[in-house]
Design goal:
It contains 8 helices and 10 strands. It is α/β, with parallel strands linked by helices. The chain has a domain of 60 residues.
Length: 279
């Protein structure tokens, strides 16, 4: 089995990168009988046309650095990495946030689940601040998978595709998960596979809120969730953000949405799932 680990950087300090790399190598060392490669792209500034660089991070662990188009967004960045990984022969792709790190046993716990049911979409459980959305304690099944630490197979990528690049940031993971479920596949939280992602004290900002709302608008229009569209439009107008026709031609066919109606998962927030505790 050959697994590629992909990470999209954006203005991350050098020490954070080194911390992430050490964590990845520790987790790889604990996952036997699996071949790993790491692929990265830095969205901080465009260097399109430069040579792709390859170097060894550790014994048998190559790092491929792709040339950058600039800040094209989270989903678009991972799409480039997934495409490169699968074209290079990866069986699975694990995509993670750069502001985190692998637990040393995370990959050894995740890989058996990937091998057993490769058609599913998987997520590692975040710590110390766990995402509050519900998942089954018995099967791990959940309503959507977070893009902070996800995994999918080459077969799924060929069938379902990657992220919808209409989402610059936020909600692209919800959309990908719902497309998996529309095809009858499952979204699974692997509870004993941990990824450090400490977002507990992260401050919000008007720009982040705008990006949440713009992505919510795309998601609402695509899936016909009128209450979500109305809320996002109203809040964007109140913030002075001009509305346009984004996603107006993206709505999925009604007969497809009827197979899995995501409208029931939106009430008044962006959880898109029952939560296990209040934030």
């Amino acid at each position: 089995m050959h697994i590629y680990i992909g990470v999209v950087w954006y203005k991350n300090p050098h020490e954070d990168r080194e911390f992430w790399i050490r964590g990845a190598l520790n987790a790889i060392e604990g996952a036997r009988n699996t071949r790993f490669s790491i692929v990265e792209v830095d969205n901080s500034e465009a260097n399109f046309g430069s040579q792709e660089a390859v170097r060894e991070l550790g014994p048998g662990v190559p790092l491929l650095s792709l040339s950058s188009y600039g800040n094209i967004g989270f989903g678009a960045g991972h799409n480039r990495l997934m495409s490169s990984a699968f074209l290079e022969g990866a069986d699975f792709y694990i995509g993670v946030n750069p502001d985190g790190a692998f637990h040393r046993q995370s990959l050894s716990r995740l890989i058996p689940r990937l091998a057993a049911e490769p058609s599913n979409l998987y997520e590692m459980r975040q710590f110390p601040t766990e995402h509050p959305k519900h998942y089954s304690p018995d099967t791990g099944e959940t309503l959507w998978v977070s893009g902070a630490a996800f995994a999918m197979s080459k077969t799924s990528w060929e069938t379902i595709g990657g992220f919808d690049e209409a989402f610059f940031m936020y909600c692209e993971d919800v959309d990908l998960s719902w497309r998996f479920r529309l095809r009858g596949n499952k979204c699974i939280t692997v509870a004993d596979s941990l990824y450090y992602h400490n977002a507990a004290n992260r401050k919000s900002s008007p720009l982040i809120q705008q990006r949440f709302l713009l992505s919510g608008l795309v998601l609402g229009k695509k899936y016909g969730i009128d209450t979500l569209v109305q809320r996002c439009e109203a809040e964007l107008v109140s913030m002075g953000v001009p509305l346009n026709a984004v996603a107006s031609d993206m709505k999925l066919p009604a007969e497809l949405i009827e197979k899995f109606d995501p409208r029931i998962y939106f009430s008044s927030d962006f959880s898109f799932s029952p939560v296990r505790w209040s934030l």
